[in-house]
Specification:
364 residues; five-stranded parallel sheet; binds 5-amino-5-deoxy-1-O-phosphono-D-mannitol
């Protein structure tokens, strides 16, 4: 069943070009120029804000989507972990869309948060992998991510499929709210259609990542940094690494470095900087310089322009293909997954069934 791979996680990582293409095909029109689903089931013009709720990796997908909904659709977004949301019982203003993201559709805290929102939010929408799950059933509208069965406890293909569906929703919202016209929408969708191909290119970095992972496996701690929509990806990189390799890892917004975590930086500390060459690149490079000045070992994950501008002092670099800004967070998930995977393999941990973790957390 592992289709020749050593672990389900590896199989699931390498399935991503196919499942992402499936998800894109499901939601877009045949010519790929418009959004076929959802249609008018969600009244994006009739809401003023979105409340997103999830746990773990699905929560990180929500944090990423916040950047898209705010920037593209002009919709304010609050993101909460479900265990906090459900007991905080926050006020839900009128015209709030409540959006829940869950691979399993059975996570106890997310389900409880959904139940709290029913009757309070204008609409409850779930983005799920398991279509027959409780969360799918109890929400007003369930949108499948079509990742196929995910067995590895560390979520990989579900994360990138969640992001893909959320990106399409953000574009739908932007279009419905008159923030982007047909041509701009088609332009963004063209970028999205190119995603599976870009993911294939990123997967081809496996050999250098494997070599790097041998070094990372020696570390006791690691720090992941990112800015903008790369900040949640830094969180995801850290979560993946700690889950399966048991290396203590933290993800931080690059700009927070000097507000605390820089105190940890020394010669032994790998700092993974996720930074495509975008409008925030220079800011992130200056954070990187602060790490280098303290002897930190920087692994820069960037694109060709970023690699050129970053200078020679970085310890290692991984160069991803250029990508439209919208799909960059999805693309940058790939090296984060491969890095965690190969580090865990190098350490000999149980990749698919890490200690103390369950695939589906149905008790709080
Ligand atoms: O099934 P769900 O998406 O609701 O699960 C949420 C988290 O338990 C899950 O993402 C967890 O954090 C993964 N092990 C992350 O790799």
């Amino acid at each position: 069943e592992k289709a020749g791979y050593k672990h389900f996680m590896a199989k699931e990582i390498f399935e991503q070009p196919v499942v992402l293409a499936d998800a894109i095909r499901h939601y877009l029109s045949d010519d790929g120029q418009t959004i076929a689903r959802p249609g008018d089931e969600i009244d994006f013009a009739g809401i003023d804000r979105i409340a997103m709720v999830a746990c773990g990796t699905a929560y990180i997908a929500c944090l990423t989507a916040k950047y898209w909904f705010e920037r593209l659709a002009g919709l304010p977004v609050d993101v909460d972990v479900a265990s906090e949301f459900r007991y905080r019982e926050p006020p839900i203003p009128d015209r709030t869309l409540a959006l829940f993201v869950s691979q399993s559709g059975e996570t106890a805290d997310t389900l409880a948060a959904l139940r709290f929102c029913k009757g309070r939010a204008a609409q409850t929408v779930a983005v799920v992998n398991v279509a027959e799950s409780s969360i799918a059933r109890e929400s007003d509208l369930a949108l499948p991510i079509l990742a196929g069965v995910e067995i590895g406890v560390a979520s990989t293909k579900a994360f990138t499929c969640q992001l893909t569906v959320l990106a399409i929703l953000a574009l739908k919202a932007a279009h419905a709210r008159g923030r982007i016209d047909d041509a701009a929408l088609a332009g963004h969708l063209e970028g999205l259609n190119g995603l599976p191909g870009l993911v294939n290119v990123a997967l081809a970095l496996e050999t250098p990542i494997k070599a790097l992972a041998q070094r990372l496996a020696e570390a006791e701690d690691a720090l992941f940094l990112g800015r903008g929509a790369m900040f949640p990806l830094a969180l995801e990189g850290a979560l993946k690494l700690k889950e399966i390799s048991y290396i203590h890892a933290e993800g931080y917004a690059s700009g927070e470095l000097k507000h605390g975590p820089i105190a940890l930086v020394d010669k032994r500390m790998p700092v993974i900087v996720m930074a495509p060459h975008d409008r925030l690149f220079d800011k992130t490079v200056s954070n990187m310089q602060e790490v280098l000045a303290r002897g930190g070992k920087v692994l820069l994950i960037t694109d060709a322009a970023g690699a050129e501008e970053a200078g020679e002092e970085v310890w290692q670099r991984l160069v991803l293909p250029d990508a439209p800004e919208l799909v960059e967070p999805i693309l940058y998930a790939i090296p984060a997954q491969l890095l965690a995977y190969h580090t865990a393999v190098a350490k000999g941990t149980d990749v698919d069934q890490p200690r103390n973790l369950a695939k589906s957390v149905t008790v709080e």
